[in-house]
Amino acid sequence: MISEESVDSIDTLALRRLKISKEKAIESYRSSQKRVFDILHMDLDLSFDYEAQTVIGHVDLRIKPFKYPQKILQIDAQDFELSKIFFSQKGKSTELAYSYDEQLIQLYLPRELDERDTFNLIFDYKAFPNKNSGGGSEAIQDTKGLYFIDPLDTISGKPRMIWTQGETMHNSKWFPTIDHPNERFTQRLNLSLADSLVSISNGELVAQKKVENGMRIDSWEMKMPHPPYLVAFTIGDFEKVNAVWEDIPLGYYIERGYKNGAAKVFQNTPEMIGFFSDILGVRYPWPKYDQVVVRDFVSGAMENTTASIFMEELRLTEREAIDGEWDYIIAHELFHQWFGDYVTAESWSNLPLNEAFANYSEFLWNEYKYGPDEAKLKLISETENYFAEAESKVENLIRFEYSDSEDMFDSHSYSKGGVILQMLREYLGKEVFYEGLNYYLKSHALQSVEVHDLRLAFEKVSGEDLNWFFNQWFLGKGHPELEIKVDYSEPENILVSITQQQDLTKFPLFQIPFEISWYVDGEREKRKFFLNKAFQQFALDNKMPVDQVYFDEEKNVLANFNIERNAESYQKQFLTSKIGIARYEALDSLVSMEANEELKIVINNALSDSFWAIRESALRIIQGNTSWLSVDKNLENKVFGLVENDLKNSVRAGAIDALASYDAVKYQQTFKRLTNDPSYLISGSALMGLMEEGIDLEPDYIAQFDREQNFRIVIPVADFYITKPIAGKGAWFHSQIKTLSGEGLYFYLGYYAEYFSRFREEGSEEAISNLFTILDGDEKSFIRLGAFQALLAFSDEEVVIDRLVKSTASESDPELKMYYQYFMEVIKGEN
Ligand SMILES: [Zn+2]
What's the CA-to-centroid distance between 616 and ligand 1, angstroms? Predict the structure, then answer.
């Protein structure tokens, strides 16, 4: 029995909980920053103390109250040293009282100022980018804002440079500002640097003045306003490749020795600028576009206004650049010059307004340059990125609650965002979609935006309410889980039943426009439908009887499909579909079903498919089934034909790999010839083919390759020295570990350790020490993992185990740390 009073108290308790949860929702809501003051212009003089790694600055900010009268001004300035701060108006200057908590300067203005009061804030300061950063997680290492690389030039082979990385709110580590994306100002940057060096920054280089002690001052001017996180510069010993699009000068900056490579890596930039300007109907909005490749960058690349900065993976020799496929990242940063820089998400909650577009530009460029199949291949990989992330986190795309702004930089904002834009283009049609983008860019030029601005632009041009689309995709979370059943019992009127299986307590009931297609005498037919119920049936009314239909054959819909298909139906799909990506999917499905009989039937067609990704897949299939070549000479000849004639280097390399697995001895003369191919993909595969059993190579033959520094050549040479085996190569192995980086270094580490664990007298101590240096200090977690795995080759040495215990205990990456713990338990168990 419950007394009336206790019923009351239960109600009270429930009500109190409700109040608390509602209060919490208000408290944790991430709104855009309130505009209290507006910075109109920044004049910034910077010089650098390389020894102390500090920034010496003099700033002059032109500011006004945004709307309401104000008495106190707050300026972001992280870890600065400050002295006097001056307020200047109409030629009169007074010193201001202020307080400072290492994050915000709180300035007490001489009187209450209103929106007509423009004034200047002028002061000297010192900034310490390294203070309160580094040593922690990767996210924390990312907060310096300004980075000194090899500041005293003590690391051999590593050029000294400075570069900056402002996103999200890290630029206030090196200049005082209102560090939020809805702020916007013009600027002049006067950079002090050695006369032998080069600077790159936003806008135009308007002056260069030689001063004493071999120094120079470079002045960069941005005449159009942009947000503080896009302010950037780099200083270093760069070479420049000059290019041009119409009257817009383009610069590709690279460290010495890589100029020819950079000319190739960035060669499509002018065409990209033209293409994007065309589809958007908004000409590239800035006076120039520079792209700079730096060392040790903390991200892939960053779209600073007119001055994008890229990671060192884009630093290639001319020969490496033959196979360098960096268009996607170049397109991404370039598209940001419109979406992000020209029109800017007003808050990190709206980040997809920047990143979804940049991501989608990779699709658009592929579609324009290489056709729809290549574009859809990209889209599928984005879909997979999102699905992989969705297993552990499902978020609204536009998120008004997050714990850290860095959390927004995930596969939701990028990959899912890009796929959503493709669905929108599919729904509206290309013409209306681009018209909507044009309207959006023009009506919000040099302003900040939120997601509704985008919806309203599309509604304006299409004349259609689009809340349903934006609510489910931008403001909602999740994706449709569709169970699809096809009833073929009336072959001239096929019935498709679709059930939405996602949890409707958490996710929307989706409204999905989609297409069903089929083939009659080899001709493709299609019909569009609209799914808007939990369970819905669609009659095709196809008239001519068919026995197979395709749901979303062109892969435009972001959904998980639960549809019963057997190998035979994928075989049929492969052999009949006119859509490259559908054939690719069919082949891929047959592989994952291990449907060898069906694969054997389609393999011939797959090898001559017009879509290179299918030829490449087919070669991988053959590599795992080389017996097919023994019984089918035609197939073997076809593979050989691809080695010699395919237009795509990756296909030629795949064909070499397949023949090497099949009968390397037979093809060794071909392989020897192809080791001289200009493409490293091809020459590397050919050299690797020569490492197969039965081929007896002389050390003299290999010697011609041992000066190469590309990992595709280094690895087969290392393999040769180990398996032959050849002593006396310690110095060669040590030198390679110093020059390789990234993925190549990762693969190499295993070979490196194996050589020295066999020939300890060649310098295993130095090898172990080098591996520990990587394990303890490399910035990339997958490289540290490679060093750990390599060190296990020395796990018979107690000192190595002891050091491994220490090193792995201080690992900062939680996933890697768990992996280490597991392995160390196993090793301890063994010892
Ligand atoms: Zn981006």
Answer: 29
Cα(46) to ligand 1 centroid in Å equals 27
Ranges 408-417, 714-723, 796-805: which has the least confidence: 796-805
759 Cβ contact list (under 8 Å, min separation 6): 725, 727, 730
CA distance 502 to 687: 51
Nearest to 307 by CA among 270, 252, 357: 252
Distance 409 CA to ligand 1 centre (A): 9
Reference 308, options 249, 242, 251; nearest CA is: 251
In angstroms, what is the span from residue 481 Cα to ligand 1's centroid?
A: 29
Contacts of residue 822, defined as CB under 8 A and 6 or more positions apart, other chains included, come to: none
Strands 37-49 and 185-194: parallel
Sequence-distant (6+) residues with CB within 8 A of 345 are 181, 351, 352, 353, 354, 448, 449, 450
Ligand 1 centroid–CA 425 distance in Å is 20
Q: What is the structure's pLDDT at 155?
A: 87
What SS3 state is found at 273?
helix
- Kind and range of the H or E run holding 148: strand 146-149
Q: What are phi and psi of 373, to 5 degrees?
A: -65, -45
Q: Are strands 301-302 and 307-310 parallel, antiparallel or unpaired?
A: antiparallel
Describe the crossing of helices 742-758 and 730-739 by its angle, rounded to 10 degrees. 160
Between CA 148 and CA 235 the distance in angstroms is 10
Q: What's residue 136's pLDDT?
A: 38
Could you tell me which residues come within 8 angstroms of residue 562 by beta carbon, excluding any fewer than 6 positions away? 481, 482, 483, 484, 501
Of 296 and 54, which is predicted with more confidence?
54
Which of 31-40, 134-143, 637-646, 662-671 is the least confident region? 134-143
Distance 359 CA to ligand 1 centre (A): 7
Amino acid (one-letter) located at 805: V
